[in-house]
Amino acid sequence: MQTRKPIVAGQFYPGQHESCANEINQYLKESTLIKALPETIVAGIVPHAGWAFSGQPAAMVFAAIKHVHEKVHTFVIFGAAHSYYGQSPALYEAGNWITPLGEAAIDEELADQVLAERTTVSDIQAHSSEHSIEVQVPFIQHLFAGAKILPIVVPPTEQAIALGTSVGDIISKVEKKVVCIGSTDLTHYGPRYGFTPMGTGADALQWASEVNDRKFIDLALKLEAEGLLTSAAENCNACGAGAAAAAVAAAKKLGKTEGLLLAHTNSNEVMLRDMGTSSADSVGYAAIVF
């Protein structure tokens, strides 16, 4: 049986079982769901930075799903393609993933169904250095004991939409509860990222969050999958546009017509709040459910 060991445990999130569980519990405690949630949730968009920055908004999405659905059998996790340069989405089809909280089994039956649609390829190597899916798995293990996962790295191409639509169609025909998760951060702004169209300073960072991030968020809330790909290409406002587009396409196929924004923040806001310092750079994070 093939097993993927964690690559960012101890860096992006705690590497030990107790500290990992404790940190998740802290985020859940801080993530009060004050908005009326949909009667059913079929998909979500989560950030994937280090938990110190994006753990709380990510936790909000999984907490919302838990609030609406006590039991989820499988999470299809669409990840960003940070170091995978293939054109086709890459699926991890069998075995399990290990995190500090234990093993998460791959839903091999669902993997076979998705692969049969030819909207993705089996490519384990594509997941070897990708963190955007891994950082979500402990939340699933903690809140949904025994839930399986189906990890898919999704490049920002039109194939993302075909994949999401296909996955949504498959999910609509199975009896088990399956939820799709799209993993993306938003605008990477500042000298560190080589993206400073509005210059530097507080006003520029405000633009990155309130204008540039918001373009992507609004398209997601309206389930405009193609628009997400175009916006990211033109405005550099998402590193996982393919993952988000796949999640949105799946949600649309499953009958959703709008999303709900649970939270929107950025790394600079988190630094000011939690560390009392600021930076010339900032990365946006959004928590959305469908």
Please give the CATH class.
Alpha Beta
Mean pLDDT score, rounded?
Answer: 96
**Overall body shape:** globular
Order of helices and strands: EHEHEEEEHEHEHEEHHHEHE
Under CATH, the topology can be stated as Protocatechuate 4,5-dioxygenase, Chain B
What is the level-2 CATH architecture name?
A: 3-Layer(aba) Sandwich
Rg for CA atoms: 17 Å
Tell me roughly what share of residues is in helical segments: 25-40%
In total, the number of domains comes to 1
Q: What's the β-strand tally? A: 12
Distance separating the two termini: 34 Å
Biggest β-sheet strands, sense, barrel: 9 strands, mixed
* Name of the CATH superfamily: LigB-like
Coarse structural class? alpha/beta
Give the DSSP E fraction (strand runs of 2 or more residues): 15-25%
List segments where confidence is low: pLDDT < 50 over at least 5 consecutive residues. none
Total of DSSP H or I helical runs spanning 4+ residues:
9
Describe this structure in words.
The chain is globular and about 50 Å long. Strands 2, 3, 4, 7, 8, 9, 10, 11 and 12 form a 9-stranded mixed beta sheet that branches. The chain has a 3-stranded mixed beta sheet with strand order 1-5-6. The two termini are 34 Å apart. The mean pLDDT is 96. The protein has 9 helices and 12 strands. The protein has a single domain, classed as Protocatechuate 4,5-dioxygenase, Chain B. By secondary structure, it is an alpha/beta fold. A hairpin with a 2-residue loop joins strand 5 (96-99) and strand 6 (102-105).
